[in-house]
Design goal:
- The chain is about 30% helix and about 25% strand.
- The protein is of the alpha/beta class.
- It has one domain: Rossmann fold (3-Layer(aba) Sandwich), CATH 3.40.50.
- Strands 3-2-4-5-6 form a five-stranded parallel β-sheet. Strands 1-8-7 form a three-stranded antiparallel β-sheet.
- α3 crosses α4.
- The longest helix has 19 residues.
- About 30% of the residues are buried.
């Protein structure tokens, strides 16, 4: 923690000090969601899904590789606890070869595991952060290899407003964040990073 000389305390407000220190250290972090808040948010999103999809007989859950699968795993396992005995089709989709920047940037493909048809299904796409919308657009194209769904919904943990390149909006949102383009939203998961946390950097 930064120490402030007593003679300066009457002349500086706390927000001003934060601004000064933030300028000196551009990598200063702000916590958007801590571990407890992440768990509460995942639980809320699952209850919203149950309200709209009931027994999931016509609905499937698809996590987007690579970062969205940590959230989709949580959503899937939480739904199983809330709906014991109910079968939920769950798959993971890689969109590497459907990206609009595939020929201009190096991307390492991930595994796609979808062992069921999406034909006439209600598909719930799951990703960690909705940013420009280009990842979602690529996912919509990639899904057609597995059938044509009747409905496609998008579930995200973080929705970054003011940065959309395409007219895509989430149907289920954990938290909406107003962040400028120079700021980064990082989602950390216990399975990969040692703890659950969402930070603005």
């Amino acid at each position: 923690m930064y120490a402030v000389n007593r003679k300066w305390q009457g002349n500086f407000s706390y927000p001003l000090l934060i601004t000064i220190f933030g300028a000196l250290n551009p990598h200063i972090l702000k916590t958007i969601l801590n571990g407890t808040q992440v768990a509460i948010t995942v639980d809320r999103l699952c209850h919203q899904l149950i309200e709209n999809h009931l027994d999931f007989s016509k609905s499937v859950l698809i996590g987007l590789q690579p970062r969205g699968i940590y959230l989709s795993d949580r959503i899937y396992h939480t739904l199983q606890k809330l709906l014991p005995g109910v079968h939920i089709n769950y798959g993971k989709l890689d969109i590497t070869f459907y990206r609009d920047d595939f020929n201009t940037e190096l991307h390492v493909p991930n595994e796609t595991t979808i062992n069921f048809s999406l034909e006439d299904k209600k598909v719930i796409l799951v990703d960690d952060v909705l940013y420009t919308g280009r990842t979602t657009r690529s996912a919509l194209a990639a899904m057609l290899d597995f059938g044509r769904p009747t409905v496609v919904e998008l579930l995200v943990l973080i929705d970054r407003r003011f940065t959309r390149h395409l007219p895509i909006q989430a149907d289920y949102t954990g938290r909406t964040v107003d962040a400028i383009s120079s700021e980064k939203v990082r989602v950390r998961w216990a399975e990969r990073d040692g703890k659950d946390e969402v930070i603005l950097e």
